[in-house]
UniProtKB/TrEMBL annotation:
The keyword Kinase applies. The keyword Kinase applies. Belongs to the aminoglycoside phosphotransferase family. This is Maltokinase. It is an enzyme of class 2 (transferase). Signal peptide: none annotated. The lineage of its organism: Bacteria, Bacillati, Actinomycetota, Actinomycetes, Propionibacteriales. It comes from Nocardioides flavescens. One of its GO terms (molecular function) is kinase activity. It catalyses: D-maltose + ATP = alpha-maltose 1-phosphate + ADP + H(+).
Amino acid sequence: MVHAHPGRRSRGGTAAVSHLDPQVFATYLERTRWFGGKGRAYDVTDVSTIGTLPGEPPLVVVHLVEVTYADGSDGGEAGVELYQVPLAFYEHPEQRLDHAFVGWWEDPDHGWVHAYDALHDREAMALWQRAFDDAAESPDGTMSSDGLVFHRLPGHDLDLDAQSSLFSGEQSNSSVRYGEDALMKVFRKVTPGRNPDISVHEVLTEAGSTHVAHLYGWLETVQDGEPVQLAMLQQFLRTATDGWELALASVRSLYADLDVHAHDSGGDFAGEASRLGEALREVHETLHEHFPAERRPASAARELADAMVGRLEAAAAVVPELAEHTGRLRGAYDAVAGLGDLDVQQVHGDLHLGQTLRTSIGWKIVDFEGEPAKPLAERQLPDSPWRDVAGMLRSFDYAPRVVQRSLGIEDGPDAELLEQRAQEWAERNKNHFLTAYAGGGLSAEQQTLLDAYVADKAVYETVYETRNRPSWVGIPLQAVAKIGAP
Ligand SMILES: Nc1ncnc2c1ncn2[C@@H]1O[C@H](COP(=O)(O)OP(=O)(O)O)[C@@H](O)[C@H]1O
Ligand SMILES: O=P(O)(O)O[C@H]1O[C@H](CO)[C@@H](O[C@H]2O[C@H](CO)[C@@H](O)[C@H](O)[C@H]2O)[C@H](O)[C@H]1O
């Protein structure tokens, strides 16, 4: 059943906006990078208003869009998801925002109103920044307005003159930078409960970690007594270059002359891969110190293997091509079942090169939210640090494949040599990263655990790609086909 928008309370002089058509949101979701339900049959079953940003113009209203999937919660995926869509309303069309147009409605009191995705709108984004600044003025560092609660940590004065611009990269959420001062990440898929991205950044900021951007604050609302965390404000790392982009540049330089081996290439990435390994080790050590950690008995290894098999079965329901590989994948998981004690702690949960930033003073790691497709309760649990290591290894595998696709050369006359170079590049960087992380070689137990996490991650990626970038699913499928192969 589709519910109509409940309507907005009218405030002095502003347009009341009612009758938001759920179908308009459905159409908009399909156009966005961050909607994770592509390829599934669904309905927008509710659109609710959770608050209005203080100050105006424009009028900015935060909506939660409820998406209900026809396949229920089959395939390990949620049956219902909530997406955050803040809209900026204008009484007349704003040509500068044409690219962010969501829809228009005839309002019974005010005629036509035009709605735009607020994150593209500088005027709208300034309202968030001012509200965060107001929170810093209050003795407890919080400011509440119309159901929205802004929290600030002490230690940084926001630059209110800084202009916003929306990031355009490969993202599951939406990030807006305020000049060179701050970055606000607006969580798109939201779940009631504490988001680990905020809680981990808060702890690491307070611990003085040099490998994360400092947390400045966050925005939440409370529904049925539980926080729903909507956005996070943090230090903008001004000298940062995305680790993923650096890796792609290195691969491009390798592919420029296929006669040159990866270790001789001018764009060699191995030194950076080693420094990344060291940075991850330090982050894991800090997380181990400040969050609960435990050594679980051998039965935990069996449970882990079962969980991986469960994820594989769920994934195979979404990606039928996995079926032919399940025997070999199960082999990797069964080996884990025979391991001894298992050390778990707070980890990153979804680490890949796109979560690393090279600054002038070293590598930083971002985005501690965990895998976007996992339920929040699962993402909050301690896990094995090898999960993060595996994520990075998968990323070193992705980079050469993505460059081949972007250059359209994967099926060209040099395909064989290209594949050789791709493997050289990936192996070289994986080895450097791993050796620096572990401080030497791995024990047989560590290798077994790592292999299983690599397989688990590749399986996860087949679902992620199917749902988000269907034309990329061949990348993880190619990796899955090699796991355990003779
Ligand atoms: N503090 C920061 N300063 C500068 N750039 C950042 C910062 N945090 C993240 N980024 C950039 O924004 C991109 C997206 O951030 P991320 O937290 O990974 O978002 P998502 O959860 O949507 O994937 C990252 O790949 C990185 O390039
Ligand atoms: O960054 P997020 O937390 O949203 O992570 C999700 O999106 C990632 C892509 O943006 C995805 O990562 C996969 O693609 C990367 C290249 O774009 C590659 O480097 C990673 O190895 C690969 O897993 C991630 O899996 C997903 O959870």
